[in-house]
Input
Amino acid sequence: MKLIVVKDRQEGGQKGYNVFQSAYDNGAKVFGLATGSTPITTYEAISASDMDFTQMTSVNLDEYVGLAADHPQSYHYFMQEHLFNQKPFAHSYVPDGTNPDAVAETARYDQIIADNPIDLQILGLGQNGHIGFNEPGTDPELTTHKVALTESTIKANARFFDNESEVPRYAYSMGIASILKSQHILLEAYGEEKAAAVKAMVEGPITTDVPASFLQNHADVTVIVDEAAASKL
Ligand code: GLP
Output
């Protein structure tokens, strides 16, 4: 893993943008995208740039089960607001949270990824070490699957909803195996509440207790953290 420590998420966003830019300059055509507060500064820098994605494809990591694309807390909606309105792609894929048939939806999404191999995947990091919505204990061999969110993730994500009871209990997520197929991976993490997960991801054993630790098995991972998130390293 290549570790870059920055002062804050503003500087991290700029560095994240540079990673996108170099993938773009090297011919990347499929960008794996993430939601959450972490990638926002990178998306801002991309939005302000002259990069053009109108011939490119994006594939998002995950979506809450039960939320339609026009729900303000859906990941579809998030992507629209933070990136796609400013930088449209030729094709943008996000799991369909309204599909009640998990077997069909996860197979459909696996096929999308097979047809559009990801050149650069951006990731955030859960406080419990999750990536996408791959919670601790997830079988690393899984590709896209339906996930029961853990209590800690529901609590962490409740800040985006009016109250905790509105947070969906399930999500569709790319698996760890899907993520590891990406050619390049960029993970960003900011804030002290991520420090333990960062340490376990970078220095700890590779274990299902810390899904992000499987990134140690990938040959091309860049990790951008601020000083607070790096404080336990
Ligand atoms: C969510 C998302 C992840 C994200 C993580 C961290 O649960 N499914 O993709 O990386 O939590 O969120 P944040 O970036 O807001 O800290």
User: Anything to note?
Assistant: DSSP finds seven helices and ten strands in the chain. Residues 2-215+222-226 form a domain with the Rossmann fold fold (CATH 3.40.50.1360). The pocket of GLP is lined by residues 34-38, 61-62, 124-126, 132-133, 153, 157 (CB under 6 Å). The chain has one domain: 2-215+222-226.
